[in-house]
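FAQ: What does the model actually see?

It sees only this:
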Amino acid sequence: MTNSERMMPHPILALPFRLVSGLLGLVWKLAGFILKVTGLLLGLAAGLLFMALGVLFCTTILGMVIGIPFFVLGFLLMIRALF
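And it is asked to produce this:
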């Protein structure tokens, strides 16, 4: 008789707990996937917004001081979201 047989003499009693545990594991993985995709889309949208603001600020000479860093920040956000 092995250790696992001594630990669980009636495996049928553990079946409901295993099913619930498996179901909760699937729900947890689905929630993680949804958050990952949402974070990706949010990162892309924020990057695009910062790039657009950077271009808008760069239309004036004084705005270039703020516009160029905004554009670079947006570009880096988009790169980070994609990779």
